[in-house]
Design brief:
Blueprint lengths: L2 E6 L3 H13 L2 E7 L8 E2 L2 E5 L4 H7 L2 E5 L8 H12 L7 E2 L4 E2 L4 E2 L4 E2 L4 E2 L4 E2 L4 E2 L4 E2 L4 E2 L4 E2 L4 E2 L4 E2 L4 E2 L4 E2 L4 E2 L4 E2 L4 E2 L3
Length: 196
């Protein structure tokens, strides 16, 4: 029997999350939590069932897993606050991995993180909690990515790079091997990052 999951956030990123979850075949999407004016609408056929104020009743029910489907470009605080709230209440925050991704058995991924289509994660990489590893990202060997990061589309994180928590790493960005990127960094799309 497939597990029921509730998504939190019904914007554009949610659509991509739905596509990954459908492809895994591991979960039935019960519904989506979003803003009050969106309740009653749907995203790709899945109903927006309530706001943050209704979350508690679904948590108390105990039959649902949760995934934070709010996107993150400039500010990770909403995702962080929601993650901490769900953790405080003992919620299950599964790791979601697209079937088209390659994830080395020698890597480690933490809870609440989503690995999207055509991602490659190589050996001995460590991915933190509540991260978005977006479509076609390449995470090379021995990379460490902190909690609450967004590694965006078609980006390259070369071997041994360390990315601090709550960092946005833009589309098609490339980092020189063994670079260290501080917490809360914003790496622009198409940029090359290296420590001087």
């Amino acid at each position: 029997m497939r597990k029921k999951i509730i998504l939190i956030g019904g914007g554009g990123h949610c659509k991509s999350v739905i596509d990954v979850i459908e492809r895994t075949g591991n979960y039935d999407i019960f519904g989506i939590i979003d803003k009050k004016d969106k309740v009653g609408e749907n995203v790709l056929g899945y109903d927006i069932i309530g706001t943050d104020n209704e979350l508690e009743k679904y948590i108390k029910n105990g039959n649902y897993s949760f995934h934070i489907s709010i996107g993150f470009i400039k500010d990770s605080s909403i995702r962080i606050n929601m993650f901490e709230y769900l953790k405080l209440h003992g919620c299950n925050l599964p790791i979601i991995i697209s079937p088209s991704a390659y994830v080395s058995r020698h890597s480690k991924i933490s809870e609440g993180t989503i690995i999207m289509h055509n991602v490659i994660i190589n050996a001995c990489s460590l991915i933190g909690s509540n991260c978005i590893i977006n479509n076609k990202a390449l995470i090379e060997h021995d990379v460490v990515i902190g909690d609450h990061c967004h590694i965006s589309t078609a980006s390259v994180v070369n071997g041994g790079v360390k990315i601090g928590k709550s960092t946005f790493y833009g589309s098609a960005a490339v980092s020189k091997e063994y670079s260290i990127i501080p917490d809360n960094s914003f790496i622009k799309a198409n940029s090359i990052y290296k420590n001087t």
